[in-house]
C-alpha cells in the first residue's frame, strides 16, 4: 500500500482506496478496474446469449446455424473470461 495524491484535491490517499477520503473523487485505478470487468462481462453475456440461440437453432433443426452459433458463443465467452 502506497500513498498517492488525489488528482482532484491534491490530498494524500491510499493506492488501495476506492475514493479520496478528503473530496470523495473516485480513484482512477478503481475506475480502470471497473471498466475492465464490465468489458469482460459484456463478452460473457454475449457468449451466453449466443449459446442459448444455438440451443434454439438445434431444437428447430437448423444444424448449420446452430454449429456456427455454438462456436461463436464459446469463443465470445472465453474472450470475456480472459479480459
- What is the helix content? 55-70%
Order of H and E elements? EEHH
Walk across the major sheet and give the strand order: 1-2
- Given helix and strand content, the structural type is mainly alpha
Largest sheet: 2 strands, antiparallel
Strand element count:
2
Task: Note the overall shape.
Answer: rod-shaped
Mean pLDDT: 84
Low-confidence stretches: none
Whole-angstrom Rg = 21 Å
Distance between termini? 25 Å
Strand content: 5-15%
Topology diagram in text:
Blueprint: E1 3-5, E2 12-14, H1 28-60, H2 63-82
Antiparallel strand pairs: 1-2
Helix pairs in contact: 1-2
Question: What distinguishing features does this structure have?
Answer:
single chain, about 80 residues, mainly alpha, two-stranded antiparallel sheet, 2 strands, about 65% helix, about 5% strand
Amino acid at each position: 500500500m502506497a500513498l498517492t495524491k488525489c488528482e482532484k484535491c491534491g490530498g494524500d490517499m491510499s493506492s488501495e482506496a476506492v475514493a479520496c477520503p478528503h473530496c470523495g473523487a473516485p480513484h482512477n485505478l478503481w475506475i480502470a478496474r471497473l471498466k475492465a470487468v464490465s468489458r469482460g462481462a459484456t463478452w460473457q453475456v454475449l457468449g451466453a446469449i449466443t449459446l442459448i440461440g444455438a440451443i434454439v437453432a438445434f431444437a428447430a433443426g437448423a444444424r448449420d446455424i446452430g454449429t456456427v452459433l455454438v462456436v461463436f458463443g464459446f469463443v465470445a465467452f472465453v474472450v470475456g473470461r480472459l479480459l
